[in-house]
Amino acid sequence: MTIPFDDLAGLRAVLSDLPGPDRAAAEKAQSRNAQLTKPAGSLGRLEELATWYAGWRGTARPVLARPQVAIFAANHGVVARGVSAFPAAVTAQMVGNFEAGGAAVNQLAQTFGARLTVHALDLDRPTRDFVDTAAMSEAELVAAMAAGWAAVDPEADLLVAGEMGIGNTCSASAIALALEGGEAQDWTGRGTGVDDAGLARKAEAVAQGIARIEGTRDPLEVLRQLGGREIAAMAGAVLAARRHRIPVILDGFICCAAALVLHRAAPGALDHAVAGHQGAEGGHARLLERLGKAPLLSLGLRLGEGSGGVLAIGVLRGALACHSGMATFAEAGVSDG
Ligand SMILES: O=C(O)c1ccc[n+]([C@@H]2O[C@H](COP(=O)([O-])O)[C@@H](O)[C@H]2O)c1
Ligand SMILES: Cc1cc2nc[nH]c2cc1C
After folding, report:
1. Which residues, given as ranges, of the chain have pLDDT below 50?
2. Residue 140 domain flag
3. Could you tell me what this protein does (predicted)?
4. Strands (E), the chain
């Protein structure tokens, strides 16, 4: 599908015209759920998950056939400030590892039957250091969001958006602080594992970046100012999924910061998304609260690369297998009470 925007005005137009779920399909799914051979409500959140998925796919008895995991990679100028435990070169090295099948997400995607696509975004051209200046120009922001949009397979029936980018927890923290307020420390965590001095440098970079753009509230402008490309691309991908009515499972802190931009830009923009997990990164739990999303899993992950979102495909698969495969009371000849 062609990309329906080539500038910020076009992006805003897309955000103001988001499709909703198929309510009739969701109602049919709800009524099927009520007839399945189990005490009402006994499958807990699996029941609402199946109904939610049915509504977005427009069918009362859906199956999950073509999940896609899209990983976006980019580099960050702010890394020069010593805000990560790893050097920027690791971003490109890990892209090679994804392509060779050697990363955690490769194993998880294979285990949960998802197709993995990897999208490296101008790795040789890091975004500018957001402490000093805007991370991206308008054209760069639009290009990164368009890359995210284009990465989504319109035939997919589930999207997990993931990322790889040394330094990107710093950028994600700054975005969260700009949009949600509070103190830099509230949103700044250890990322790949920085020590106390690194954590202090990181919180300082976040605070300075926010001071530089003081008063900027527009979510897309916050994203342009604070970067990075993979965060913008994830936002573009989640938006494209909405256009195709493809349900989304969100991953960790950085993915949720990308989602937050959409959430603040258009109320309800994340209705087609669930939170895959709550990770260990400082600020992720708070961010999920602000998104109004309860995580499906809580495993102490802080890897990124879509890992927690892919694990949650297993939960969704379980929910849909029960919903679409179970017998009704009438079919099984079981007394319904
Ligand atoms: O997803 C998360 O919550 C998460 C938490 C901590 C680190 N990461 C990953 O680690 C990298 C960013 O960490 P850092 O310390 O370089 O900012 C990036 O590649 C992320 O995928 C991811
Ligand atoms: C090795 C490594 C793998 C990653 N995967 C996602 N972020 C990462 C960061 C590092 C450092």
Report:
1. none
2. yes
3. Catalyzes the synthesis of alpha-ribazole-5'-phosphate from nicotinate mononucleotide (NAMN) and 5,6-dimethylbenzimidazole (DMB).
4. 67-73, 115-120, 158-164, 248-250, 273-275
